Amino acid sequence: MKKVVVLLLMLVALVGSTFSASAQDALKPGDTVEGEITNDNFAVTYDYVGIGGEVIIVDLFPVDILADYDNPAIIIQLDGEEVLRYDGYGETTVVTQLPEDGTYSIIASRRDDADGDSAGEYTLTLRNPTPIALGEPVNDTINSETVHYYVYEGDEDFMLSFARQGDYAPQVSINLVDESATAGRLSAVAALGGGLVTRGTMGVIPGGDLYVIAVEEPLFSFSFGDPSAEYALGLYVPEE
Description:
Blueprint (H helix, E strand, L loop, with lengths): L1 H23 L1 E2 L4 E6 L6 E7 L4 E8 L9 E7 L2 E7 L4 E6 L4 E9 L9 E8 L2 E2 L6 E6 L4 E6 L4 E9 L4 E7 L8 E7 L6 E7 L4 E7 L11 E9 L4
Parallel strand pairs: 1-3, 10-12
Antiparallel strand pairs: 2-9, 3-8, 4-7, 4-9, 5-6, 5-8, 11-18, 12-17, 13-16, 13-18, 14-15, 14-17
């Protein structure tokens, strides 16, 4: 009888520790987790309960950009089936629209998996872009250390207006999500920015697709200090 009681207690402890570990590996929007890729553990999995049609953004950034973890890979699976995989270089971001409801596996890994040699510490962040609607402008503040994402999905054609003030000049781009050669990466269809640009308009962009709008530091532009800017962003139906 004592052996049975001891066995039951051991089972309860094991179940408790299993649930504890699972809870630590569950992601929700806005979470940033830290981890490490090693030769013995080249793939770290996190669970995410997603909704069909939801857009998620996954950032996988090496802690030390000069270290050996220079070829990160982001893998997204549902029920063991690969939804997306992107093998990046350095700081890597992917965007995807989830095909259906379910518990997804968000996997931090490396190029060539077990045969790869990229290893090191990382941070992984999961986000949802902010929905933006026609005729409902948004206002926010941004600096050179952050990227703001918005998502528009509608059948109507649209124009985008942008205005900013401050000592930081971000770029605004309208993007489609690549679903072929570089699945999960953004493909710009229009962009607006420059140090002397304080306002402007882009359009007409045809409706009917999923668009991701990014407000970020322009490529090959490096800000010093801590510059910031207030901005307004809006989508409007073009005039006839």
